[in-house]
């Protein structure tokens, strides 16, 4: 077990790719527009999953920009022979010590949806890893959900939300609510499926009952139901006088 809350089946990879598209539709960008582009810059995506974020920004950057995707598992990486020459993927646990060869290497470090992976609800280790990877003057772009701002409409969605609470920025564009809710519900289903047999002693309904709830909630989405979190983006810059530790 590597601590990842969801599984890595094909359906989950498709959900991650759809989530990326929705995130871009909401914000209007993949790489934050305040980040200056340089011909020789190096960009790292930590927790890259399918690599969809890197492959998206590659289309709009000079071919001399180096793009590295890292994840604790390589099971969702695209086939190496299909990749552009400046895109590379590798296995890395960002919650362990960062190899010294990567220290101070990157102009940009990108993080997305780490809220369910961070251990002990303490992001210090992840922030320190990103800090170590960045060059002085480099940028951290962190995209996540605002856990305290959740939208829930519908009977089935409410029941599912109670189960989630038991187990454990800007408002969304109205035109994207149903699509965000659909991907969120699929993620919830994947999370419950991945925890079968490892529910930490918490009494949960049978998987069949959870699947029925998700199906009901998906039906409610078509009639105005919703279950999603509010997306948020943090952009930070490493000081010029700060060395990588």
From TrEMBL:
- Give the domain of life: Eukaryota
Q: Which InterPro entries match?
A: SAM-dependent_MTases_sf (IPR029063)
What Gene3D superfamilies has UniProt attached to this entry? Vaccinia Virus protein VP39 (3.40.50.150)
| Residue intervals passing through the bilayer | none
What is the name of this protein?
A: Methyltransferase domain-containing protein
Species in which this protein is naturally found: Aspergillus wentii DTO 134E9
């Amino acid at each position: 077990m590597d601590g990842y809350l969801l599984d890595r089946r094909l359906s989950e990879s498709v959900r991650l790719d759809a989530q990326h598209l929705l995130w871009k539709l909401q914000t209007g960008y993949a790489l934050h527009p305040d980040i200056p582009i340089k011909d020789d810059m190096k960009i790292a995506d930590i927790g890259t999953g399918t690599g969809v974020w890197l492959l998206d920004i590659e289309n709009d950057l000079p071919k001399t920009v180096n793009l590295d995707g890292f994840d604790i598992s390589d099971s969702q990486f695209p086939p190496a022979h299909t990749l552009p020459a400046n895109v590379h993927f590798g296995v890395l646990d960002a919650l362990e010590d960062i190899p010294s060869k990567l220290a101070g290497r990157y102009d940009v470090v990108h993080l997305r949806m780490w809220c369910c992976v961070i251990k002990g609800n303490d992001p210090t280790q992840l922030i320190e890893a990103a800090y170590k990877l960045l060059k002085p003057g480099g940028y951290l772009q962190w995209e996540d959900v605002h856990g305290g701002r959740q939208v829930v409409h519908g009977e089935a969605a409410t029941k599912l939300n109670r189960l989630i609470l038991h187990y454990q920025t800007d408002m969304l564009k109205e035109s994207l609510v149903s699509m965000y809710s659909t991907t969120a519900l699929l993620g919830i289903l994947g999370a419950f499926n991945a925890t079968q047999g490892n529910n930490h002693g918490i009494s949960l309904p049978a998987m069949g009952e959870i699947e029925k709830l998700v199906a009901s909630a998906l039906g409610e989405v078509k009639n105005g139901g919703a279950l999603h979190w509010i997306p948020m983006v943090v952009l930070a810059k490493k000081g010029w006088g700060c060395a990588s530790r």
